């Protein structure tokens, strides 16, 4: 199954399942089990529905009532680290960018930060996995892209701003600091504001 198709079909959609209502507690236990297995160094190929079920303390049937296959489960597990998409207010480019940076640095994302580190080599090696991950993060990247373009259009940002490069300049440091803690002196409180302000010094009109 094409991973991009899987991601597009399952991410952010409510699945209708027959029988008893879904348990949010069971859903979270299953997603956490996937993330814990990944964080422990298990490769995607090595993770099975059986292993996830055992880790979550549920039966395989419980998982299959919620997800049609392992790929769909993996997509939702990775997406769950990010949480719901934030809603920029549209009033200030700076405030919206700060909101978006903070949304990618939630407590759940920090808790499972090493999952992304473990997955990175697999994303590089496996084109399908890379496409799957892109399907998860691209909606967030596009939100930030829209904010930057709006800033150019309304004169808050430079008319000649390279939107894609600016997007990388914001997302890259945030990811590296979260995953690798390159600068131990950096405090989480105020990080998003400091990062956005630094980028805007060169991007502002």
From TrEMBL:
Ranges of compositional bias, category Polar residues: 1-12
InterPro entries: DNA-bd_HTH_TetR-type_CS (IPR023772), Homeodomain-like_sf (IPR009057), HTH-type_TetR-like_transc_reg (IPR050109), HTH_TetR (IPR001647), Tet_transcr_reg_TetR-rel_C_sf (IPR036271), TetR_C (IPR011075)
Region (Disordered): 1-24
DNA-binding region: 48-67
Annotated keywords: DNA-binding, Transcription, Transcription regulation
Pfam families membership: TetR_C_11, TetR_N
HTH tetR-type domain sequence ranges: 24-85
DNA repair in keyword set: no
Name of the protein described by the UniProt record: TetR/AcrR family transcriptional regulator
